[in-house]
Amino acid sequence: MERVRAPGVGVESEGVVAAVVVDRYAGGGQGRRDRQQLRGTAGSFLEVAARLGFTAAPLRNTGDGVAAGEPGGPAAGTTRAEIEATVRRLRAHPATRKILYWTGHGEKTDDDRYHLACRDSYPGGGGFEPATAVTAAELISWLADDPADILLVLDACFAGAALARTVGELDALLRTRGGAGGFAVVATASADQRAAEGRWVTELTALFDEAGLELYGHRLFDRETPYLFFGPLMRAVDDRARWDASQEPLARELRPLRLNFFHNPYRSETARPASRPPDDETWIGEELREVTLPVFAGEAAAWELRDFTPRETVLDTVVTWLGTRSSGLLAVTGAWGAGKSALLNYLAHLTTPRFAASLPADRRPGSQPGLNSIHAAIHCRGKTLAAVCQELCHRLLPLGLVPTGPLGSSSPAAHVEAVARVAKRKGSLTLLFDGLDEAAAGHSLGIARQLLNRLAADPAIKVVVGTRADARRHLPGGPPAESLLDALDSTQSLELDRLPETQGDIARHVEHLLRRAGFGARTADGGRRLAAVAGHIARESNGLFLVATLWARRVARRGGLPDGPGELDADREIGTMGLARLFAEELELLDPDDPDRIRDVLRPLALAEGHGLPQPGVWLAMANAVRPATRREYTERDLTRVLDATRGAPVVRGREAGRDVYRLAHPGFGGQLVGREADPRHLHHAVCRALRPATDTGWARADPYVLTHLATHAALAGGDTLAGLVEDDAFVVHADPDVLEPLVASQLDVTDRSVLYLRVAGHFRAHPGPTARWAMLRATALATAARGLLPVLAHPPELFWQDLWTSARPLPLGRSWPAPEGGAFAVAWEDSRDGLVHAAGVGEIRSWGPDGREYRGRALARPAGRAAPGPLRGLAVAPGGAVPGAAPGTVAGKVIAAHDGYAVHVWQGSARWPVEQFYWGGAPEAVRAVRCGATVYVGAVDSDGLWLWRWPAEVPPDHGTIRHVRLPGNVYDAALLPVGHEVLAVLGGPDGVTLWDVTARASRPGSGVLQLAARRDGRPARAVAALAAADGTGGWLAAAGGGALRVWRLPDFLDAAQADDTGRVLTVPTSGQRAVALGHGPHGVLAGVREGRDVRLWSLSGTEHTPLPGDEQQPSLAFDPAGSGRLLVADGNQVRLWDPPAADEPGPDDPDARDHGPEGGRPLLRLAPGSDSGGHLLCLARGRAVLVTLHGPAGRLPGLGTVRLRLGSGTDGLVALAAVRVGDGWLVAGVVRRTAFLWHLPPRPPDRVPARPTAVLDLGGQHDVPVPSVDLQVTGAGTVRLFVSGTQCVRVWECRERVWEDWREAPKTWPFTTAATAQQVAVRALPNGPAWLYAAGGESVRVWDLPGRGPAPYGIDPSGRAATAFGVLRDSDQAHPVVAYTAGGQVWIAECLSGSPAREPLGGPPVDARGLAFAGPPERPLLLGWRKESGRIHLWDVWHNRRLPDIEHRGYEVEDVASVHGPAGVTLMIQGGVQDRVRCDQVLLPADRLAGLLRTPPGHLV
């Protein structure tokens, strides 16, 4: 039975149901009193109650150590004490509406009191013992003082006696007990009647299948009425139950229930539909807009949609569904030609006033939808998921839809949210989607799951979908694991070609066509002959309107009506061959001179993608590519003749990319043109060869059809055709990522190029320009694991820079899949031969093979009226396996367990729906599952400990086979591990890890569990994992929490004598404590921890590998149990599968400085000029360390590693950084709050040797006010100065070169002359020339001549200054300081030539830059500007005040830029932000390219 969790326990506005099911009785009665069906009956009642608004988690009993089975409730048998405890739980529940449902035996005793039998009410299998039962009066007295409204349902024999005998007593009791709420009692049988099992619940359930039910002339489920009244609802049940007088329910309201006690399941809070603007024509797609629909080319072939033969029954069903539902999804399905599109097109136009008024009386349907009641109608033919989302939003713009971004640039979830906001604001929406099966190859399932299902789940959106069961085209690798009908969460489905009335509808349609052709004289005999022929065609057309239509045309061409079906015997093969012969005859009529030509020229339309083919270029190229080798080559003249002959039908015209395109009028024609003998893969391969542009043309000038759809043809061709395209850099840059990305993701083989493309595809969507895409492609290749990939990538001339180096550690290869609905919350890797991986989302589980092929998934049911399932936050798999003692080859099915925070749901084998649900009133936080021999174990962790269930693997779980045990205690997490014939439970707690043997053993006393060793180290074990050694000798335990990951090696898991905390092999600091995993890899055991968005990995040797980036923080990881080292990660919208790290992978540059948090401030970057040969010093501040490397114009200097300049203990990060070249090396200064640390380094710092500070300076001032900026200067006199920003001044410390420990503060400061604090301090100097000191703070900028303070500083006081940069401009032999700043959304330049610097805005469009920096030589300086979030760096030629081309977005936010220049050009260091994992890239602007941009000889740039 399908089970659904109802969320919201403890929410007062929700109703709650307590179910008491007494279906087994103790004693020796051989089970004759047991009632096995009652549990299912109670489950049905809970489902109905949920539709009536009782959506809190039901209260159920458990007993005998057996978990609840059916949703109706408890374990078999309940005692009086247990029932009283359940009632107490019900009374304590905060809900204001409550139902107590009791089903079991009822007994009347001699004193005329009514008793409800409990488990032990028939001792020894004999007579009834009233003392052990519960009387109706007692039951009501237990509930009477509850202030909530209560309904008591007694579904038991003779239940009417509870009212007949004691109603007066009960009324008095209720008045005296003081409860403020209403109270009602329902007895499902009278005082002298037995209650048939489930009868009353069945009749109650049946009510809700009749949305239009009327009671005494009034509609019971009025959509405008929010609540159902108790009296009318009970009378409706009574009317149904009394039809044979065998069972007469009774209902009494002893105290009136509140009006909102029962919610109306058909009520919509937005029942009023949104009002479509009367003049709006954009609601309907181009493909559905025409009301003249051609049948085929030829005279009188076209017919008007108004002549559509009304399919009264089907149309009535659809209209009723639309009129009685406020949300949900109606699937209209059937084979090709079954009339799906005609029906939905007709339905859409029926909602328009003009079309509805144009229908003649004899063609007007009995049921019609409301006018303007469909708000968007879209055909999915040839469209991607993104294109359908974009079109939907476009169609709803007149209703006030506000896109979350540019149409098509947002995710499907964002589009759904935007549509839902319209429905909430404007009223309920009805959306129609036709041709789901005709969507772009590989997109139909995504449209169903990510768009249509999510729309239909909104309480104010109805969705109607027309589709075949499967997509028209499948990508290589076989059909998907699910059909489209499986993927759609349909509230109702209509399979048109299998409905009993379809044959009659087809007969009327054929008769209408033949009458239009002049057949069927107005005589009785003519009418009978016409009806007979039409009936015969209808019977033999297999329910397909298309076949019947063409067959009717064939009959009409004969010129006379057959005398009867007998004369149609010659056409009998049409009934079996169907469309093939009919279509061939039509083609022969269209081009009798050259019948082969029309088939050859039309064949490309059968292979076309998107909306159709443009002509003549693409169409003609495809026609000649796929024609038989014996046919001649076709010309434009042939194409024109065929198009003239077929225009209308079978070829129709549409629009795509702003031009006319042509397609087949019906997808069923395509198979006839291709032919059964042809291999579509070979045809698509030929198309790919024909459409690939010549070398001299290139992809930039390729036809739009080629750029959009060639990838689909390549994917359908199979083999390595698509991989070959992806190897072409220019193709991936110009191709449509909405089409290409899902195709590349679906490929089974993972390559460097495919991984690279998948990493940039999202960026390509937002940046359609080729230059931006090239920049992103090369910048991403720079950070890939394939070091040789960047040099072989094309470098187009528009990229005037070179990518040289990155601090980002190369990531291993990996692949990803779209997450289940709602995102991936948990993952599991199956330990089986197939090695399937599973991911859990909202109410569903999706499964893939490691090669990427998807398998059939699992789901929670979503019955109408119930709340949607919540996220499945835990997932575990126990693999299938051989059953000991069974026949050879016998394999028990796998078990998948998942929890949603309320219950544990269990699937067995390949079943799509759960077979069991474990609910015990707790809140599960983790779930585990293993198989050991012939037994399955499922465990769940909650605040009370570990709950463990087990049952035989070869049978489905039920209350007769499940046993459970609880390990109480403060348990944070648990792992289950089969070790030989034992099952080990590893429990993480406040002080470490404990081990238990939980194997089922009859010989063990008590609960049957045995405590083993422990690893208590005083740190909490928030997450735990266990791994057995491959050779069977013990294994490893891992625990994360308390700021560290610990791993222990145990030689024998089952040795209870081991000492605590022995065998530790790894201890590393980490803040991650929500997920840990252990796995075998190709080079040893790996340990992984989820730390924030990243996954950190270690080998047990202590080597940390490249952190794996993520987008979310879901606490779920799983290594490949086969030992490959691959890691599965739940990551929001993606399920990621990473390859193992390489054995020789270097460790992180600074593992101690990761995640320095807000105390560390933003990443800091400084680049000290040296020489191209000796290197320039790059300093990167990371938390409390400075990473130092040497770089030349070709990248990082070879043979040198990273030097870490450490600050020692502490928590505060660096806030300011400076570096300078000194005579005997380098000097680096870093500031933490108000303490400066200085390091002197040799010219080539030693590799990876921690360097301790040479000097530490106390800068004075308030400790809680950090120093914002410092800089270093080497004077010509051999003095080194440290300039420090301060309040209203700049302070200076000095030392002599080579005396690096002796620093002294200068007695004089540099007065800032304003009230502001100097936030920026910088020194700029020319080699062997003048130098200047710059300071900026507030709205003031000051510039001094150095070395002394000299005359009064230059003053600049820009209002609203946002960013500032300092530089030098030299003209001939004269040099002067220059300042750039942003104000008012504009960049300004101020040249300090006098006391009042001259200012002017920079040329080009206004740029609101948030960061500025000068670069290049002072003779021809560049100004760089950036906004952090844009990622783009703007360039200006300062000398000519001219805007230059931008350095395009590199995939991360720009935090800072530093530069040096030399003969090779200008070297830039581009620093990303914390959210980009503090990536820093080195980029070179080559001298020759820069000279061209600046229009100056290269020699002027040195």
TrEMBL record:
Residues spanning the signal sequence: none
Coiled coil regions, renumbered to chain: none
UniProt cross-references to SUPFAM superfamilies, sorted A to Z: P-loop containing nucleoside triphosphate hydrolases, Putative isomerase YbhE, Tricorn protease domain 2
Domain of life: Bacteria
InterPro entries with a match to the protein in the record: P-loop_NTPase, WD40/YVTN_repeat-like_dom_sf
Chain residue ranges for the region called Disordered: 1101-1123, 1137-1168
Protein name: Uncharacterized protein
